[in-house]
Amino acid sequence: MRLGPTADPEPAPHQLLVEVRHISLNRGEVAFAGRRPAGTVHGYDAAGVVVRAAADGTGPAEGTRVAAFGEGAWAERMAVDVTAVAEVPAEVDLADAAALPMAGVTALRTLRTRDILGRRVLITGAAGGVGRYAVQLAALGGAHVIASVGSARRGEGLAELGAHEVVVGLEGIDRPVDLILDNVGGPQLAAAWQLLAAGGSVQNIGWASDEPAVFEPYSLFFVGPAKTMSTFGDVREVGPDLATLLGFAAAGRLSSEIGWRGPWERYGEAARALLERRVAGKAVLDVVPPA
């Protein structure tokens, strides 16, 4: 990745033009950046101010502060669908809003795949961006939240966010769980499957282990209500869900958990910190220096 000039985006009639103030990096975007064509404007998460409303008359007006999700977010200006933005309440800082789209919507939508009130929810990779949002949202939804991390140090602060149990790996989990949000993959995913209760489900979100998951013969066979394993990648029309998250943030019920912040000229430092798992939560870069 590098900083460099690019042409101004040309919004379609159903898109608005945003002057970007802050961007957020996700580990997957950084890890796979080299697979994109040269000259690609990377990134999906941003927050800023609308400088041109959508030509079709829909969406926020010029001058509105928004959080946005869409391709080409890591730039001074981005064109984005009106269905992929939400107005940022006055109580929420734009930097906090920029940390929400990808990770926050992922956590929210995967938790909504089943009723979690009174259920046992296991979140692996809980120290990361998605994980920290998932811990908070699952607690808000009335779940018994089990946060799994790679080390005791990575688990710091998760109890304060709402985790009822914080475990290293899967150690100490002695009862079945109803929903697993898996950010790790690999051997731990195969082991976590054995903890799943009848009728439970696994949502595959990430694969931080970079290792294959091997399921022993017949380990997927089960007599009783079906257990399921699903991929997640539904990021269509995220505006309403983004508004929900911003509402929680404005009410003080959801923390953006920014673990690294600096000017966007330091993108290399932020990227390395993410790849080396030295960021607890989200990494945010300031495109426009804070006042």
UniProtKB/TrEMBL annotation:
Domain Enoyl reductase (ER): 1-285
InterPro entries (UniProt xref): ADH-like_C (IPR013149), ADH-like_N (IPR013154), ER (IPR020843), GroES-like_sf (IPR011032), NAD(P)-bd_dom_sf (IPR036291), Zn-ADH-like_protein (IPR051397)
Span of the signal peptide: none
Molecular function terms, GO-annotated: oxidoreductase activity
A Pfam cross-reference name: ADH_zinc_N
Matches recorded under CDD domains: MDR4 (cd08270)
Name of the protein: Alcohol dehydrogenase
